[in-house]
Design brief:
single chain; about 270 residues; alpha/beta; TIM Barrel; 2 domains; eight-stranded parallel sheet; 11 helices; globular
Length: about 270
C-alpha cells in the first residue's frame, strides 16, 4: 500500500470515496491502525481527556503534542498524520501560530496540523498554509471553545448558527485548508456544507453525508469507561478483555499457577 498524501485525500473527495480518520496517541496504536488501512491518523489534543485523564483539552501543551506525534509517526507507514494545534498555540499571534505549527511538523514529524475555528481563524490558517504547512480545519462543536459554548453542545440548531457555520466552512476553505472536520452538527447542515465545499469534510457526530468519518479510537474499541456519546459506535469491548486477562493473571500469581516451567529458564 502506498503512502497517503494530500492529493490522495482530495482525490477521494473528487471520486466519491469516503475518508477514514481515527485518533492515535502512541506507537502501538498507530502501528495497528496503519495496518488496517486507515487513511488519516489524527494526533488529537483529545490526548488530554483520553490519555492524561484531564477534564478537557485546554491544558494540553505543544510540547506534549510533539511527544505523542513522534510516537505515532514511528508507528505508521502509510497513513497521513495530522496533529492538533492545542489551545493557545495559535490564538496569541500569527507568528506564534506559524512557529508552533512548524514545531509540530519539524520536531514531531506530522504532515499537517488541525486548527479549530472558522472566520475567526481565517487569517491564521492562511498564514500557516502560506509557509507550506497543510491545515485541516475544524468547525461546529470545537472542544477548545467549551466555555463559550457552555459545554459539549450540538451546534447549528437555529438558522443564525447554521448560517454562521456555513460562513465558517467557506472561510476555512478560502484560507487554504485541505479539509475540514464537522463536529456535533445536524446531518442536514453537514450535507449542505459538504455539497458546498470543494475540499473534503470529515464528520464526527455530523451524519452520513460528510466526505469521511473520524472517531476517537478509545471510544471505538470500548476503552472509555462509561463515556459514550450518541454518535459513537463501539466495535469492540476491549476494556472487558483487559479486565478478564488481568483478573486471570492476578489469580494465577496468587495461586502459584504462574509462572510454570513453560515460562521459566533452565
Amino acid at each position: 500500500m502506498k503512502k497517503t498524501g494530500l492529493l490522495d485525500i482530495q482525490k477521494m473527495k473528487d471520486e466519491g470515496e469516503n475518508i477514514t480518520m481515527l485518533t492515535a496517541y502512541d506507537f502501538q496504536t498507530s502501528r495497528i491502525l496503519d495496518g488496517c488501512n486507515v487513511d488519516i491518523l489524527l494526533v488529537g489534543d483529545s490526548v488530554g481527556n483520553v490519555i492524561m485523564g484531564l477534564e478537557n483539552t485546554l491544558p494540553v501543551t505543544v510540547a506534549e503534542m510533539i511527544y505523542h506525534v513522534k510516537a505515532v509517526v514511528r508507528g505508521r507507514k502509510h497513513a497521513l498524520v495530522v496533529a492538533d494545534m492545542p489551545f493557545m498555540s495559535y490564538q496569541v499571534s500569527i507568528e506564534e501560530a506559524k512557529k508552533n505549527a512548524g514545531a509540530l511538523i519539524k520536531e514531531g514529524g506530522a504532515e499537517a496540523v488541525k486548527v479549530e475555528g472558522g472566520e475567526n481563524v481565517e487569517a491564521v490558517i492562511r498564514a500557516i498554509c502560506e509557509i507550506d504547512i497543510p491545515v485541516m480545519g475544524h468547525i461546529g462543536l470545537t472542544p477548545q471553545s467549551i466555555h463559550r459554548m457552555g459545554g459539549y453542545k450540538i451546534q447549528g440548531k437555529d438558522e443564525q448558527q447554521r448560517e454562521k457555520l456555513i460562513a465558517d466552512a467557506l472561510a476555512v476553505e478560502r484560507a487554504g485548508a485541505f479539509s475540514v472536520v464537522l463536529e456535533g452538527i445536524p446531518k442536514s447542515l453537514a450535507r449542505r456544507i459538504s455539497d458546498t465545499l470543494r475540499i473534503p469534510t470529515i464528520g464526527i457526530g455530523a451524519g452520513v453525508h460528510c466526505g469521511g468519518q473520524v472517531l476517537v479510537i478509545n471510544d471505538l474499541i470500548g476503552l472509555s469507561g462509561k463515556f459514550r456519546p450518541k454518535f459513537v459506535k463501539q466495535y469492540a469491548q476491549v476494556e472487558e478483555i483487559i479486565k478478564n486477562a488481568v483478573k486471570e493473571f492476578v489469580t494465577d500469581v496468587k495461586t502459584e499457577k504462574f509462572p510454570t516451567d513453560e515460562y521459566s529458564f533452565k
